[in-house]
Amino acid sequence: MVHTEITLTKLEHSFSITAEALDKVKQSPKDSERRKEAEDFLDMASRYYQDAKHFQEQGDYVLAYGALHYAHAWLDAGARIGLFKVSDSRLFTVDD
Q1: Is 57 domain-assigned?
Q2: Residue 90: its H or E element
């Protein structure tokens, strides 16, 4: 088994990437017919992001790192199924 330490630098990088993705999603126009779904995905991502901040403050980098990846996964899934209009393949698994 490969053991990778979650350092503060690695955690801060993940916070930065996820915050950038959150910002892009918030600024993207949403399909009015699916607005409620998009808002739900964004809410879940925001909650996991806040959880990550809490875990970091508690010194639990492993849980913080996991929560960040859940947050980003909600955003990415929403982008992938068309809830968010984003075209940044660096942040999302979408075609540019």
Answers
A1: yes
A2: none
Q: In the chain, how many domains are there? A: 1
Q: What's 94's DSSP letter?
A: S
**Residues 61-79 pLDDT 10s:** 999 999 999 999 999 999 9
Residue 61 sits in a domain of what CATH number? 1.20.1270
Residue 88 lies in a domain: no
Residue 25: how many other CB atoms lie within 10 Å: 25
Q: Which two tokens stand for residue 57?
A: 């403050």
Q: Confirm if 68 and 48 have CB atoms less than 8 A apart.
A: yes
Candidate from 54-58, 59-63, 71-75, 88-92 with smallest mean pLDDT: 88-92
pTM: 0.88
Q: What is the domain range of residue 32?
A: 8-80
